[in-house]
Amino acid sequence: MGSCKDEDRNEINCLFVHGPIIIGAGPSGLAVAACLQENGVPSLILERSDCIASLWQQKTYDRLKLHLPKQFCQLPFLNFPKNFPKYPTKHQFVSYMESYAKHFSIEPKFKQSVLGAEFDNLTGFWMVKTQDFQYFSRWLIVATGENAEPVIPEIHGIEKFQGPVMHTSVYKSGSEFQKQRVLVVGCGNSGMEVSLDLCRYNASPHMVVRNSVHILPREMFGVSTFSVAMALLKWLPLGLVDKFLLMVANFTLGNTDRLGLRRPKTGPIELKNATGKSPVLDVGALSQIKAGKIKVVEGVKEITKNGAKFMDGQEREFDSIILATGYKSNVPSWLKGENGLYAVGFTRRGLLGTSSDAVKIARDVADQWSMINKIFPDIDTKLLK
Ligand SMILES: Cc1cc2nc3c(=O)[nH]c(=O)nc-3n(C[C@H](O)[C@H](O)[C@H](O)COP(=O)(O)OP(=O)(O)OC[C@H]3O[C@@H](n4cnc5c(N)ncnc54)[C@H](O)[C@@H]3O)c2cc1C
């Protein structure tokens, strides 16, 4: 470590990193660090929070289980323990992540929030800036996730509401909402699962469904819907697979349009590929909607002091509002340049995409790494002088 001056001539800590800098210690960051290590390349992970897999540890609800079967969510070179169920709980997933980091001796540098990353054409190095350091490396791997920041929509009048308003990233359990009337804004996987969790605590959730949504059973004939789709896609065109999934969904779940959950015109997989919008995999919310325990309401026109006015003219009182309005990436706010730049975990294919990205990036960097080390065996020590 050394010291250098920033653009305002202040002395700051500088560190030349041997190998790539990886930003983010979620599953993608850990996977790529492990793959690099398997290829003999060291790396350094910078993570803004104080733990690995912070999305899973700090921003998800207690009852969360993996949406997809475990074989689609494990990371390269280390499988889930055999005794884990088909859909591991979030606690099991976190313990797997911790064993993964331990197994590959990955020690991220925590509390390092990346504020800027810029490629310097003159030196051929990336300069990555955090609140108290500047790091330099030939390679930058962005693994900050598609879910880095909560999306908080502008809803007319929300500032007038007297009760609590929270995003699902801070929702832990329905125990805080017992017997309350809760407005849940959003009907994706999080909106559905939070509404279901609220029912379990005798709360009365009203779920706002503004857009169309595909709901599929989590399993078809005892096999996960995701596995069925993946298998069929090997043999059949996408349009036909979508038709098949919708036929089985209509047969097992019934016509969801009648419940106020209109299906999009585009099929579930085609929509996912085109827009990244995942279908909801039903884990029980639909039966609560059918039983009238979760009320489906149309778009919100306005939030009032004690509740909400809806597009259909109805007005209701609520005790709390939960925004199940999703997440977005924060990369555009701090990244500049493209040389030696890699991204892992942005393919909208979840943990399955993470694993294949990590393996490919590690191979590519490893090739360059061995070439540079052959030509300039002492390049790093020279740069530090
Ligand atoms: C409720 C929920 C359930 C999900 N269930 C599944 C599932 O069953 N199967 C599946 O495949 N996917 C699932 N996903 C998607 C899931 O987010 C990803 O598959 C997985 O967590 C992606 O890992 P990642 O490492 O790319 O991103 P993340 O897990 O989001 O990790 C990114 C890390 O980068 C850090 N970071 C962000 N910005 C900065 C910065 N500027 N500086 C430093 N560090 C930064 C963050 O703190 C975080 O630790 C789920 C997502 C949610 C929200």
Automatic annotation (TrEMBL):
PROSITE patterns linked to this entry: PROKAR_LIPOPROTEIN
Q: Which reaction does it catalyse?
A: indole-3-pyruvate + NADPH + O2 + H(+) = (indol-3-yl)acetate + CO2 + NADP(+) + H2O
The UniProt record lists the EC number as: 1.14.13.168
Cited Gene3D superfamilies: FAD/NAD(P)-binding domain (3.50.50.60)
Pathway assignment: Plant hormone metabolism; auxin biosynthesis
**Alphabetized UniProt keyword annotations:** Auxin biosynthesis, FAD, Flavoprotein, NADP, Oxidoreductase
- SUPFAM superfamilies tied to this protein: FAD/NAD(P)-binding domain
Query: Per the record, a Pfam family?
Result: Pyr_redox_3
Q: Which cofactor does it need?
A: FAD
Task: Report the sequence similarity comment from the record.
Answer: Belongs to the FMO family.
Q: What is this protein called?
A: indole-3-pyruvate monooxygenase
Organism, scientific name = Rehmannia glutinosa (Chinese foxglove)
Cite the source lineage: Eukaryota, Viridiplantae, Streptophyta, Embryophyta, Tracheophyta
